[in-house]
């Protein structure tokens, strides 16, 4: 009998494929990940401007959704609906199933959306934006309540069990907004905040730039802090039962924190690149992470071990061959959003392959803003240098490109000379 049972289990293992341990498909860093309440599907968002709907049973991509004009920074599962995505273009798209077009689009933010949260009943959707506001939208009638007060980008938002909203900002404040229109409670902290989650009992966890996870009661009273690492925490998730908090940082490690003991139970050791997004599966036994290597990895959330036989590996440094070249050093600030070769494709920004001599807004496969399409610029060494001399906002108004300038004329020349060499 025992032998027959063993044979049956072996046969079942052979005909039932194990869940895929890596989800591959994005052309840029994976900025957001969320899992459906039944654990069957995940949706991811990327700097490559796409969202992908995945079947978690076999790791296949059911749909690649290209709606947003900018990096998809936030994804949330909405009970009774499907998923919502928020992006650099300030828009929120609601998705049901595999449809190529969103079921509905919410607008109103004046800057990139950084985070989304849904109420437990799926009736409210909260969005945090770099326009310094939080919007709370009723999905029943589309009315929105705008929460103003943060003095800088709002990086995180969550919905408390009673319906109050909690937000975390770059201005180093945690804010709790009551259900009615009364004033918010402001908790000032010593460092910028990058994310927030809420447990079923209302406890609040905040990811901070000093590498610490801070815990608060639903009334804002401090309950403790946990030193997770030396670099900023940039990703945060909590299991459905509230037992485990996952906090990830710039160096790629993710700490699994036991909320009851306030201790780190395990550490997920990834490829050493930034982890931008985390999500637990509904039973809390597994979780997904998305990061700078463009992959979504699956982990055992109890032991911290990588699921499957693939050993996490460091990403290839495409600039290693140019060590010592000043132009390559300057370009590192651009590498998260732009690629250099046609095989690597577009990310948050278009590929720079074939840049010189190309008319603005003409790279194949990239969704440019209407403002860019209307401009009459041809990219030359002179125009690229001018872009970084006066900044993208002044030179290309309406751009989604982060504002940055290069003050040194020598450095601008080194960059354009190097780009001319490597983008042919």
TrEMBL record:
Keywords: Electron transport, Heme, Iron, Metal-binding, Signal, Transport, WD repeat. The keyword Heme applies. Residues 1-20 form the signal peptide. The lineage of its organism: Bacteria, Pseudomonadati, Pseudomonadota, Alphaproteobacteria, Hyphomicrobiales. SUPFAM superfamilies: Cytochrome c, WD40 repeat-like. WD repeats lie at residues 23-64, 106-136, 147-187, 268-309. This is Cytochrome c domain-containing protein. GO terms for molecular function: electron transfer activity; heme binding; metal ion binding. InterPro entries: Cyt_c-like_dom (IPR009056), Cyt_c-like_dom_sf (IPR036909), Cyt_c_1A/1B (IPR002327), WD40/YVTN_repeat-like_dom_sf (IPR015943), WD40_repeat_dom_sf (IPR036322), WD40_rpt (IPR001680). Residues 322-423 form the Cytochrome c domain.
């Amino acid at each position: 009998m025992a032998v027959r049972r063993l044979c049956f289990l072996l046969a079942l293992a052979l005909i039932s494929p194990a869940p895929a341990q890596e989800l591959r498909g994005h052309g840029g860093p994976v900025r957001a990940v969320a899992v459906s309440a039944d654990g069957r599907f995940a949706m991811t968002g990327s700097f490559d401007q796409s969202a992908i709907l995945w079947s978690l049973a076999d790791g296949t991509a059911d749909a690649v959704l290209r709606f947003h004009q900018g990096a998809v920074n936030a994804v949330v599962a909405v009970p009774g609906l499907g998923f919502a995505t928020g992006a650099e273009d300030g828009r929120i798209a609601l998705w049901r199933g595999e449809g190529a077009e969103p079921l509905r689009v919410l607008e109103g933010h004046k800057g990139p959306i950084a985070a989304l949260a849904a109420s437990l009943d799926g009736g409210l959707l909260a969005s945090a934006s770099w326009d310094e506001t939080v919007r709370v939208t009723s999905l029943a009638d589309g009315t929105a309540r705008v929460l103003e007060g943060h003095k800088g980008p709002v990086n995180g938002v969550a919905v408390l069990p009673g319906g109050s909203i909690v937000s975390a900002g770059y201005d180093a404040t945690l804010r709790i907004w009551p259900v009615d229109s009364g004033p918010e409670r402001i908790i000032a902290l010593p460092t910028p905040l990058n994310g927030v989650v809420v447990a079923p009992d209302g406890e609040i966890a905040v990811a901070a730039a000093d590498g610490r996870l801070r815990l608060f009661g639903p009334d804002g009273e401090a309950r403790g802090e946990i030193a997770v690492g030396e670099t900023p925490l940039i990703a945060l998730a909590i299991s459905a039962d509230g037992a485990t908090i996952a906090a990830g940082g710039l160096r790629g490690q993710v700490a699994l924190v036991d909320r009851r003991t306030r201790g780190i139970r395990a550490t997920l050791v990834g490829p050493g690149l930034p982890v931008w997004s985390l999500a637990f599966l509904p039973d809390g036994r597994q979780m997904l992470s998305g990061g700078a290597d463009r992959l979504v990895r699956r982990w055992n959330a109890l032991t911290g071990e990588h699921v499957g036989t693939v050993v996490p590996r460091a990403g290839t440094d495409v600039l290693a061959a140019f060590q010592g070249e000043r132009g390559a050093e300057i370009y590192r600030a651009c590498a998260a959003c732009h690629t250099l070769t046609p095989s690597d494709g577009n990310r948050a920004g278009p590929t720079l392959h074939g840049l010189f001599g190309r008319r603005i807004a003409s790279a194949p496969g990239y969704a440019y803003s209407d403002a860019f399409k209307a401009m009459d610029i041809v990219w030359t060494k002179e125009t690229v240098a001018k872009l970084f001399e006066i900044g993208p906002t002044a030179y290309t108004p309406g751009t989604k490109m982060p504002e940055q300038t290069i003050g040194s004329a020598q450095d601008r020349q080194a960059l354009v000379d190097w780009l001319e060499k490597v983008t042919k």
